[in-house]
Amino acid sequence: MKKLYVNGCSFTAGHKLEHNQTWPVKLANKLGRELIMEAKNGQSMESIYLTSMSHLVDMNPKDTYVVIGITWAQRYAINFKRGVVSITPGDLRLKHNIPGSVKKDYTDKIQVSRRLTSPYKEDINLIYDEILKDKQNLNEICRHFSEYYKRLVLYDDNLVENQCHSLHSKLLGLQGFLKENNFKYKFIEFYNLNRDTTTPNDDLWIDKYPLLKKLDTSNLITFGRKFKKSMQSSDSHPTDEGCDFISERIYDSINR
Q: How far is it, in rounded angstroms, from Cα 11 to Cα 70?
């Protein structure tokens, strides 16, 4: 295996860590492989699903190992021009789970470094320039989507379960793509499949989210609440030490 393809959200991209401190870099160094790093801060599962398949479709499964960091269900993808941006609960200006006036400026979502992603093969800097020229329309689209999302929060009392089912469907779709194309892979769960937080009993959890009966748990590596308490910074993301721990766990699982 010559390459390591990694996708995910800020728990994978590293949030504010230096590039060499992130666990994908540490893992690639341990494995002695070239890193293809596509993880982005704030990325949704829909975006991860789309971009991963688009990137991998022309890659050779014989020399590419795939690691996907699962993100949170409360995020939505918006395709604009040739880029993909993701809307998160933070854009709703939530306070005590009550949305306020939604965010007005979404230009930060197209930063080339750890933000903007794309299913296309063009240079990401060219895609950035293309979107930046039309940032007024990007802001309008994202603002209206955030207003729509705000109303879901206010009026849909089944929103959380709907979001989880959507995430699980994307996860299974990506699993099917990887297996169909003979990629070796791992999914990384940062207590974001709602198992730890809403339904501690695994049987009840599966009953609540039946799509996950089809998840191949032999390729799932989970970091639960204990990891959250001991290996995360004040902003809830993995620390440099946490990334050492994550990379070692994944490395051991790959070589087992």
A: 9
- For residue 74, give the nearest of 222, 198, 219, 186 by alpha carbon: 198
Closest CA to 70 of 164, 137, 181: 164
pLDDT tens-digit map of 49-98: 999 999 999 999 999 999 999 999 999 999 999 999 999 999 998 776 67
Q: Say if residues 169 and 210 touch (Cβ distance below 8 Å).
A: no
User: Model-level pTM greater than 0.85?
Assistant: yes
Q: Contact 247/21 with Cβ under 8 angstroms?
A: no
pLDDT band per the 50, 70, 90 thresholds, residue 205: low
- Quick check: helix, strand or coil at residue 238? strand
**CB count, 10 Å around CB of 52?**
24
Distance CA 55, CA 64 (A): 12
Q: Is 81 left (phi over 0), alpha (psi -120 to 50) or beta?
A: left
Distance of CA 227 to the CA centre of its chain: 18
Q: How many CB atoms lie within 10 A of CB 23?
A: 30
